[in-house]
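Example record

One chain of 404 residues, shown exactly as stored in the release files.
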Amino acid sequence: MEAARRLGVPLTVASERPSTFEQAQPERLLTLDFPNPELAAEQAARFAQRHPIAGVVGVDDDTAVVAAAIAERLQLRGNPLPAALAARDKHLQRMKLAEKGVPVPRFELRRVGEDVTDLAMHARYPCVLKPLRLSASRGVIRADDPPGFVAAFERLKRILEQAGCEMRDVGGVEGSASRIPHPASRCVLVEEFITGPEVALEGLVTGGRLQVLTLFDKPDPLDGPFFEETIYTTPSRLPPQAQAAIAGCAQAAVTALDLREGPIHAELRYNERGPWLIELAARPIGGRCSGALQFRGGASLEDVIVGHAVGMSLPSLERERQAAGVMMIPVPGAGVVREVQGVAAARALPLIDDVVITAHPGQTLVPWPEGSRYPGFIFARGETPQAVERALRAAHRRLEFVLD
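Predicted structure tokens for this chain:
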């Protein structure tokens, strides 16, 4: 919303639930049927008859699919709907990437009703169990042996039930939707654990061609058993040839999935065998993390995304000279937030841009793998990624979450 305001682009916000202000501002607020992208596209088309639409942007995994359907219906810049669906579903994505020779972990799909003891006896270790749809590493668990596999499998089943993934709306016309089990709730992806450092690639696709906007290092090892992320720093400290190989792998994935327009966020690992595509999403980086990415001239990632969607001339896509980073503040434990101490002291440290606490008093914190929400974010800028990383860790040490 801030990017659209800066660019002078009138904006309509579409939501799955009606706003009490929608009737007062019909050109600014719109309710769409998110679980049914085709129906949402028809609703958007009717809206466009009164309020012409120049572009559409999805901001998370589900709305990226809705945005693709709307773009197809209105002939706007966007991705084909099958490409957006493949980017959202981890198993479908794996199959398409493997079919085109993109390096991905060895994988297999298992159903929650199968004999978990038998599955555990025949699995290859170490392995990672994943839900097909949940984001932010929610429900992702590493298993190193059969007992660990059984425990992870049962835990993931409970997470899927808690997340409400067990049902979905179906129906092609308004008012006729019914509720049936969602196939994503009945399956678990079991894949090989890939060793090596993990990176996050932020990119923009134009006409099927990927432009890497930045490559974030993740200096904390993500070896499990759970995969809560912490620090991102950029520019990457990997050798230039490794960075080039990672960019090539991401482009191969974009081509394999037939993504054509818009932002992508990819997670990759790199080891002695080269780059491995872990996941690719047809959306920008989540949470507040985009605050760590700024371009020459002061443009934000959101400025670039909105400008691209409506066909504006883009500003320089060269990242700022300074190194930058963000820490997704780890969940300190399970409990209800009473207060957060030390925020002012953390903000006062050298190189720290800001400390943003998004958890509010009375909010329940849930650790990974059941959880998926960070209690806040720390931002820093400096001469080197190493200095930025040190500043983020120092600021984090100043914080104390008081929980009940």
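Notes: Confidence is low (pLDDT under 50) at residues 166-181.
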